[in-house]
Amino acid sequence: MTQSFDAAIAAFAPRLPLGVGFSGGADSSALLTACAERWPGQVAALHVHHGLQAAADDFVRHCQALCARLSVPLLVRHVDARPAAGQSPEDAARQARYGAFEALVSAHQTQFAIKNIALAQHADDQVETLLLALSRGAGVAGLAAMPMHWQRAGLHWHRPLLRVAGRDVRQWLRARGEHWVEDPTNQDPRYTRNRIRAQLVPALQEVFPHFRDTLARSAAHAAQASELLLELGAADLAAIGTPPRIDALRALSPARQANVLRHWLRTCHATTPSAAQLAELQSQIAACRTRGHAIRIRVGRAWVVREGALLGCYN
Ligand SMILES: Nc1ncnc2c1ncn2[C@@H]1O[C@H](COP(=O)(O)OP(=O)(O)OP(=O)(O)O)[C@@H](O)[C@H]1O
Fold this sequence. Notes:
It is found in: Cytoplasm. The chain is an alpha/beta fold and 315 residues long. It is built from 13 helices and 9 strands.
């Protein structure tokens, strides 16, 4: 199931022109180089400058040098990725990055008309993401890890290297005599992802030599299950109405009720409920048999309340 770097690039068929998320690290340096050589004049590099990181200027300098050698335009956007309360620094940086990519594409629309963006996560990143999801007790959506293709904000996003082992990406770049900038935070043991990479992955490799393939298969099964749950949630919500009728909710099995409640809360833009919040909401719904039983439960920043025969959600 893992692919060689060259096979992954050969199989990649985006609509051109293509934007490549280019951090200056090894993986995106390799992806940008391969794409620029395959589609000369049709690729732009998108770089997000995280001003807070001490090494941010080194990254930009490397990006400028490689783009000049490849004759690729470099579009740079500065972001302030300070985490909001309760948000991890990685999450804040990721959110800021997506916003910056979208803003870059839209600011240069007349010049480049980019509709497709490629990112350079590879098979090892996928394994780390899946193990991180397990460490957090994630549900099927989390265990699906990263999709290879998806749409967001009117753009098509791709991860063409998702089946290529990380060492093969670096080897490809090294064989070309290219350099890259090492992100110093990748070694920082305060981040769980780094401890997974340094300690857990080598142990897994020893016990399950094919763990990259088997974990990728599990992630693909979870992705399929997650899609089915989304479809079921949408169908059930259409049947019980929006806002949901409490008696119709109570007629569902507990698992199906939990699924449709998650789906409804997502449509209300409430945060995904924790397992404890969902269990509390379900036990309150079960207690609604008593006339006048009130429901008032906090879900993230939203409140779920009983309004007669219906549930309401207020952000
Ligand atoms: N500052 C950035 N500017 C532009 N793209 C970025 C930036 N940071 C990450 N990306 C894109 O998102 C992908 C995933 O980022 P992440 O930080 O998880 O990867 P990484 O393993 O450090 O990759 P790389 O070696 O390319 O930096 C990168 O491969 C790259 O395509």
